[in-house]
Amino acid sequence: MKSDAERSARIAAWTERARPIWETTGDTDALQRFLKDNDCHGIEAVRVTMAVLNCDLTEAQRAFLGAPCRDTERRFHDEALKLLERAEEAPMQHTAPSQVGLGPGKGALWRSPPTAANSSGAVR
Q1: Which one of 31, 44, 89, 110 has the fewest beta carbons within 10 angstroms of its own beta carbon?
Q2: Is residue 120 in a domain?
Q3: DSSP of the chain, one letter per residue?
Q4: Number of compact structural domains in the chain
Q5: CA torsion sign, 113 to 119 to 120 to 124?
Q6: Whole-model pTM?
Q7: What angle do CA 78, 60, 66 make, to 5 degrees?
Q8: Minimal CA–CA distance to 50: which of 39, 68, 35, 38?
Q9: Is there a domain that residue 109 lies in?
Q10: Considering the domain boundaries, does residue 80 fall inside one?
Q11: Structural domain includes residue 21
């Protein structure tokens, strides 16, 4: 994984290269097309958009997800939100500690003694 310093340097470089696009066109779609064409994606593209437009996260996300060239990202984002909403609506299922391999009242994984059926003593 890249370091925070490397990521910050990339974002700063893209910001400087993207600023003239925004100043010339004033078009968020053109800005996103430029960023995408220059391999600037995801949170990095949103952070560059925040810097170039001098806006907050909400406005930058709207510019990012609203651009036609970001359709794949928008569909992924929408699907992820749907899954989160479904998970929020689903009832929570609780499992007793002994069913997930935790010792009674111990909160740690435990090994069952080897038996004929479980001769390895593997973690349950």
Answers
A1: 89
A2: no
A3: ---HHHHHHHHHHHHHHHHHHHHHH--HHHHHHHHHHTT--HHHHHHHHHHHHT--HHHHHHHHHHSGGGHHHHHHHHHHHHHHHHHHHSPP----GGGGTB-TTT-SB-BPPP-SS-TT--B-
A4: 1
A5: negative
A6: 0.65
A7: 45
A8: 35
A9: no
A10: yes
A11: yes
Question: pLDDT, tens digit, for every residue of 100-120?
Answer: 555 445 444 444 455 555 454
The residues, any chain, with a CB within 8 Å of residue 55's CB and separated by 6 or more, are 49, 63
Instruction: Answer yes or no: are the C-beta atoms of 119 and 107 closer than 8 Å.
Output: no
Residue span of the structural domain in which 51 resides: 4-89
Do you know the residue count of the chain? 124
Other C-beta atoms within 10 Å of 48: how many? Answer: 29
| DSSP symbols for 64-84 | HHHSGGGHHHHHHHHHHHHHH
CA-based radius of gyration for the chain: 24
